[in-house]
Amino acid sequence: MPRTAAQHWIEPHPHGIFVRPADMWIDPSQAVERALVTHGHADHARSGHGTVWATPETLAIMALRYGTEMGTPVPYGDGFEANGVKISFHPAGHVLGSAQILLEHAGERVIVTGDYKRRHDPTCAAFEPVACDVLITEATFGLPVFNHPPIEDEIRKLLDARDAHLDGCVVVGAYALGKAQRVIAELRRAGYDAPVYIHGAMQKMCDLYEAHGVPLGELIPATGLAKGELRGGIVVAPPSALNDRWARRLPEPVTAMASGWMRVRQRARQRNVELPLVISDHADWNELTETLLELRPSETWITHGRTDALGRWCELHQLKAHALDLVGREDEDEG
Ligand SMILES: [Zn+2]
Ligand SMILES: [Zn+2]
Questions:
Q1: In terms of DSSP H, where are the helices of the chain?
Q2: Of 96, 153, 191, 279, whose Cβ has the fewest other Cβ atoms within 10 Å?
Q3: Gap from CA of 39 to ligand 1 centroid (Å)
Q4: Which InterPro entries match (predicted)?
Q5: Distance between CA atoms of 9 and 204, rounded to whole angstroms?
Q6: What H or E segment, with its residue span, contains residue 82?
Q7: How far apart, in Å, are the Cα atoms of 9 and each of 52, 113, 128, 139, 262?
Q8: Cα gap 328→309, rounded to integer Å
Q9: Going from the N-terminus, what domains does the chain have, and what CATH number goes with each?
Q10: What angle do CA 317, 319, 324 make, to 5 degrees?
Q11: How many angstroms does the Cα of residue 60 sit away from the middle of ligand 1?
């Protein structure tokens, strides 16, 4: 097994991955002077960095969430050099603007996937496999039990529930960045052209997606509408709103939730979810392992999730792997 030299210039720390020659951190969980950010989710994009390098979409998302940030936009495919390290961003297929980061230094190619998925998603650019020596990957759903069903099946369940409850409504819990827009775009793809009612917390992010060329159809704020107006409707809200006072204004809501974690019955029960929709923006077990077989990196470093199971699988397939223990990378709502 060839041994890579990347460990001499890339240092995994609990709060992020440090690229020593470039003096830059990747997705650091605390504020640093120079940060490379894979995507806008809160567990990857923190506020308070000196300078951020990210895709233009991710910078826009960070500006929306944190106010104005210093940032250098790096469009997909464009590269720049930082003290002998060539750095470029490539689509990760996770949410709008999400990127894998390719680091080239000392004759080695290292890919940091960030979060990724390989399924079609009308709201973001598709994952591109990038040849590499070292793959630094996530493993959020790194157990064989996690095989995400086709999204069309889950959207069909949502539409059927709506048709069966025209006197009430269906409220779907969906993470405000990415999942909500994907659910809405997939409803449109399935031919649903009625207005979709949204929680106020989603408006600006939906506007941002539309401004970046992702059409979502007619969206109406659910807040302030009379119960009668919401009957027969589909309402999309952040997961945290499902069980709070906000949801009480809805007419006889059927509670749905869109998350890869909905594969786990206990999680659905904990959240009082009547209609679990297994819709994930992360690679499932098959996508993770197929990606490893496709890229066949000399070494795999696993950043978060089920690092043990994926590490074991790598061993069985003669792929050298080890787990990094990064902190603050689990965001259940994001699943
Ligand atoms: Zn994410
Ligand atoms: Zn994440």
A1: 56-66, 151-164, 179-189, 203-211, 227-230, 265-270, 285-295, 307-316
A2: 191
A3: 7
A4: MBL, RibonucZ/Hydroxyglut_hydro, Xnuc_lig_assoc
A5: 39
A6: strand 79-82
A7: 20, 18, 25, 23, 39
A8: 20
A9: 10-145+282-323 (3.60.15.10), 151-278 (3.40.50)
A10: 125
A11: 16
Encoding tokens for residue 139? 């493993």
Torsion of CA 149, 151, 157, 158, to 10 degrees: 140
Distance (Å) from CA 118 to ligand 1 centroid: 14
- What pLDDT was estimated at residue 330? 65
- Ligand 2 centre distance from Cα of residue 14 (Å): 15
d(CA 159, CA 168): 13
Residues of the chain with pLDDT under 70: 1-4, 69, 330-333
CA of residue 30 to ligand 1 center, whole Å: 17
Distance 145 CA to ligand 2 centre (A): 20
Any idea which ligand is nearest the CA of 95?
Answer: 1
41 C-alpha vs ligand 2 centroid, how far in Å? 7
**Smallest-distance ligand from the CA of 43:** 2
**For position 3, what pLDDT does the model report?**
58
For 90, the token pair is 């490539």
Which ligand places an atom closest to the C-alpha of 137?
2
* Token duo for residue 136: 């630094």
Global pTM value: 0.95
Which amino acid is present at 112?
Answer: V
Containing 11, the helix (H) or strand (E) segment is: strand 10-13
| Residue given tokens 């109406």 in the structure block | 220
Q: How far apart are the CA of 252 and the centre of ligand 1, in A?
A: 32
